[in-house]
Design a protein that fits this description.
This protein is 33% helix and 21% strand. It is an alpha/beta fold. Helix 4 (78-89) runs parallel beside helix 6 (120-133) and helix 7 (153-162) packs parallel to helix 8. The chain is globular and about 40 Å long. The two termini are 20 Å apart. It binds flavin mononucleotide. Flavin mononucleotide (FMN) binds next to strand 4.
Length: 204
């Protein structure tokens, strides 16, 4: 058994990756029936959530049978992320996941999603702030680095582990790599085999 915080999951678990407009409750129902061990909501804007935007609040909905389930949030402002995590926590998810992987231009331009890979100290600070703001285990999902010159994930993984995340999911591409090129699993392997790492590392 591996553990995310106190949540025990299978030795080789299959996680349903968060996908906007895809991983809604009906889709998750089907994935649960087919054996998903852990599932995530679609990403939810912290700015939308703290302003009670219908679209964001609706994405917090889940059913008991979906557990263990993570709510994924994203944003660029540390205070908004703290408030959004506390808001999400009231829905009683098993996990709160931070999206540091979204490559979409309008998200990255603000420094959210994978945009934060341009500012690792801020990424670590935001992660620590969210971890401290909630009791729910916090996980992150990110990429190998911002671009080919900054494949920093081995260092990043250590630093976010040190501030208290309970698991990390790594998408084997950088922000600037096109989605159709094959994912690079070697660096994911390096993170996994790093003796400093003691939290679960999920390859994506
Ligand atoms: C339609 C779609 C929506 C996505 N939305 C999210 C999201 O909300 N949060 C997130 O972390 N990743 C999101 N992703 C990325 C996936 O979780 C996953 O990392 C990615 O699809 C893996 O790459 P692959 O599709 O080449 O296997 C999305 C991907 C797709 C295709």
């Amino acid at each position: 058994m591996i553990k995310i915080g106190n949540i025990e999951i299978a030795d080789f678990p299959i996680l349903l990756a968060p996908m906007e407009d895809v991983t809604d409750p009906p889709f998750r129902y089907v994935c649960k029936m087919f054996g998903a061990d852990v599932m995530y909501t679609e990403f939810i804007s912290s700015e939308g959530l703290i302003r009670d935007a219908d679209k964001s609040v609706k994405k917090l909905d889940f059913d008991e049978f979906e557990r263990p389930i993570g709510i994924q949030i994203f944003g660029h402002d540390i205070n908004s992320m703290i408030k959004a995590a506390q808001y999400a926590e009231r829905a009683k998810p098993d996990i709160i996941d931070i999206n540091y992987g979204c490559p979409v231009k309008k998200v990255v331009a603000k420094g959210a999603g994978s945009g934060i890979l341009n500012d690792i100290p801020k990424m670590v600070k935001m992660t620590e702030a969210v971890v401290k703001a909630v009791e729910t285990p916090v996980t992150i999902k990110t990429r190998l680095g911002y671009d080919d010159d900054h494949r920093d994930i081995v260092d990043i993984a250590e630093r976010v582990q040190d501030v208290g995340i309970k698991a990390i999911t790594i998408h084997g591409r950088t922000r600037t790599q096109r989605p159709r090129i094959p994912a690079d699993w070697t660096l994911i392997g390096e993170v996994k085999n790093n003796p400093r790492m003691h939290i679960p590392v999920f390859g994506n």
